[in-house]
Amino acid sequence: MTLTSREIAQYIDHTLLKPEATRADVEALIAEADDLGTYSICVSPSMLPLTLPEGSDLKIAVVCGFPSGKHHSSVKAAEAALSAQQGADEIDMVIDVGAAKEGRFDDVEADIRAVREAAPAPVVLKVIIESAALTDDEIVGVSRAAVAAGADFVKTSTGFHPAGGASVEAVALMAKTVDGKLGVKASGGIRTRAVAEAMIAAGATRLGVSGSRQVVFGDEAPGAPSGY
């Protein structure tokens, strides 16, 4: 797969979710995302509301129930609703991974549906499933639950789970399961152009990346000008 730097950038949610992130850090994230031409930024909900550069097409994504997913559905729903009111275009929610491990996919679906109803379209809902912590059968089960609950994307990882982040195999399985009904976001451990392109080839339609300049431009990255 051969994509231009601009095409790669349009797959990326330029991400900053470190607990120690400051408002100045988020302002720098927005400036870099605007410079690179990424699709969106992804930040913690406490950073809202945000001001984007005049005329910017940049979308704002925030996380929900992050990073454990062990929040009550009503709490996730309230968090999502507030984020949407404060300007979020997209919500990346974490499922209860334990419910998936127990095969309680109806409960996973209900959890997702609560957030969907609290933040209806046109807000985009992405469902973080922690694919590295799940078996193939569990990945299939939660992906089907996301489809049934009306989500817009399934997403591999928070990037915080000790089991790891995205894998080509998980992305391919998720893409096969949702069969074009939902997008697939690969997130967690994507640090090079080659890995990003492999995820896209496997079926990813969005990428969660913190080191976006390196992914967009590879080894030629550091001085790449605005308007490339």
TrEMBL record:
Question: NCBIfam families attached here?
Answer: deoC (TIGR00126)
What is the native source organism of this protein?
Herbiconiux oxytropis
Report keywords, A-Z.
Answer: Cytoplasm, Lyase, Schiff base
Has UniProt tagged this entry with the keyword Cytoplasm?
A: yes
Where does the protein principally reside?
cytoplasm
What's the catalysed reaction? 2-deoxy-D-ribose 5-phosphate = D-glyceraldehyde 3-phosphate + acetaldehyde
Q: Which GO terms describe its biological process?
A: 2-deoxyribose 1-phosphate catabolic process; carbohydrate catabolic process; deoxyribonucleotide catabolic process
Q: Does the keyword Lyase apply?
A: yes
Q: Recorded E.C. number(s)?
A: 4.1.2.4
Q: What does this protein do?
A: Catalyzes a reversible aldol reaction between acetaldehyde and D-glyceraldehyde 3-phosphate to generate 2-deoxy-D-ribose 5-phosphate.
Per the record, the pathway is: Carbohydrate degradation; 2-deoxy-D-ribose 1-phosphate degradation; D-glyceraldehyde 3-phosphate and acetaldehyde from 2-deoxy-alpha-D-ribose 1-phosphate: step 2/2
- One Pfam match: DeoC
User: What does the entry list under GO cellular component?
Assistant: cytoplasm
The family assignment reads: Belongs to the DeoC/FbaB aldolase family. DeoC type 1 subfamily.
In the UniProt entry, which residues are flagged as the active site? 92, 155, 185
State the top-level EC class. Answer: lyase
* Compartmental location: Cytoplasm
Designated name of the protein: Deoxyribose-phosphate aldolase
Family annotation (InterPro entries): Aldolase_TIM, DeoC, DeoC/FbaB/LacD_aldolase, DeoC_typeI
Which GO terms label this protein's molecular function in UniProt?
A: deoxyribose-phosphate aldolase activity
